[in-house]
Amino acid sequence: MPQTSVVDLNDVGEGEVQSTAELSQLLQLYGGFPSSLFVRQEVKMVWGILCNNYIGSSPPNNAYVLVGSPGVGKSALLVLFCCYLATHHDYNIYLARSLKHAGRTSSPHVLLCFRGKEVTAYPDCRPHHMEALWATFRTEHVHNLKFLIVGDGYRQANFESGQLDFFNTCNLLSTSAQYRLTEDSNHKLLGVPAWSFQSIQAMARAFGTLEVDELYAYSGGSVRAFTRDPFDLKMRTILQCNSVTAHTSVALRECISGLLDQGIDIMRRLFICNVNREESYVNPNRWLYCVDSTIVLKELAAKATLESFVNNGRDFAIEINNTDYVQTLKELLVQQMEYTVHPDDLKLILAKNDDDNWLQQNSGVVEALKRGVATNVVKKVLAKPQMIGSYEIRALGVPTEGSRGNIHVLVVVPPKEWGDVRPSKAREGEVQSTAELSQLLQLYG
Predict the structure, then answer these.
(1) What pLDDT, on a 0 to 100 scale, did the predictor assign at position 73?
(2) pLDDT of residue 27
(3) Cis before residue 59, ω within 30 degrees of 0?
(4) pLDDT category of residue 395 using cuts at 50, 70 and 90
(5) Name one GO cellular component term (predicted).
(6) CA 86 to each of CA 76, 117, 154, 191, 407: distance values in angstroms, whole numbers, following the listed order
(7) CA distance 224 to 344
(8) Any residues with CB less than 8 A from the CB of 172 and at least 6 apart, and which?
(9) In terms of Cα–Cα distance, which of 422, 428, 443 is closest to 348?
(10) Which of 13-27, 102-116, 331-345, 397-411 shows the lowest per-residue confidence on average (mean pLDDT)?
(11) For the residues of 2-27, what is the DSSP string, one character each?
């Protein structure tokens, strides 16, 4: 690999477009590489941290794990840095890349073995081959202080056991924001933040892209998503939103960092509070997780439908300020039903009894509903108005235990839709008024 094909980002100004066409051509069959890079401030900061750690310190002071949201440039940064160390500083590097190919049941692997400027490449490597090549390469360079094991695109679960477990001792790794350090880990996290709107805007100007606001509303801070075909970007975003579970929806809205392997990072971005300070990049306490796509936020709001805000036992109010919210809930309910019904035929009624408490899933009243029996409590609930737009719920005090932050809804289905699932002991009059009373849907929590 010629030294001239690899740039030192320390020599590139912030906001400049750097051609990497030669490197892109060389890596075309080995995981690929962009033909040009827009160099933002955050990338220069991470590059500087990597240089200070790996150059002039053998062995390096820290074994870094680059973490961040998908599509922010972690892989490009890591691969460029490996090529730079090898060609400019004569490093020996075992670089494995996990590739995501459509239609493949398992991810293929690409292996690049750098011996300074000399590179041996393996375009489609299997795990047992990788393990054998790693053992050979390690033996060859066991006394060489300029020797690094590097992984690109691997999830933590990939190398916790099995043939890839040697990555536990890697010197540098790029992975998702879900990576968690174990107590005995020698690694240190290094955050690669998502793209701010200002950075996306500057890049778009540099490449002549005009529809910045509309595209960013879908992509957020993922430059990979932003540069997709607009139609493809919009369809992907909507499909991702439709696949969100209730649990993941809450985590996304409340910026919870858990839910491993739930696809949460596709819609949520990792940002750094102060991008001007190096210590912020290596301190997870200075990181922020948030949903920055306005389209995703709107979709999540529609899924949430109702939210309750309870504050120290005082009054709380929930406003259904959009008729579409109720309609969205009906459509989601229909998807879960065992029989066909039009969403407009459903009636949704707040399941609150006369003492202003929610009906509980494990209560005797609900157990009776499961048997098709409507008690007087249920009949009183059914006599109340159904939920429509601009409906406000107000209650005094904190809800009963088990309902904190939840809204319970009674779902009434037309009797003609019951078919074979009609309770055998229920009288026809009860079925008409209490159809699909086997569930009290918890919309939030």
Answers:
(1) 94
(2) 92
(3) yes
(4) very low
(5) host cell
(6) 15, 6, 22, 23, 59
(7) 39
(8) 50, 54, 63, 64, 65, 66, 78, 81, 82, 148, 149, 150, 151
(9) 443
(10) 397-411
(11) -GGGS--GGGS-TT-EEE-HHHHHHT
| CB-count exposure of residue 144 (10 Å: 0-12, 13-18, 19+) | middle
Report the run of H or E that residue 434 belongs to, with start and end: helix 428-434
The three-state secondary structure class of 29 is coil
Q: Which domains does the chain have, with CATH numbers?
A: 3-191 (3.40.50), 208-300 (no CATH), 305-442 (no CATH)
Residue 418 main-chain phi, psi, to 5 deg: -70, -45
Tokens representing 312 are: 């120290």
Q: So what's the pLDDT on residue 160?
A: 64
Residue 114's pLDDT is 92
pTM of the model: 0.66
439 confidence band (pLDDT: 50, 70, 90): very low
**Which tens digit of pLDDT belongs to each residue from 162-188?**
667 777 778 899 987 677 777 777 889
| CA 412 – CA 427 distance, rounded (Å) | 16
CA nearest neighbour of 23 among 91, 80, 93: 80
Q: Which positions ≥6 away from 140 have C-beta within 8 Å?
A: none
Q: How far is CA 174 from the centre of its chain?
A: 16
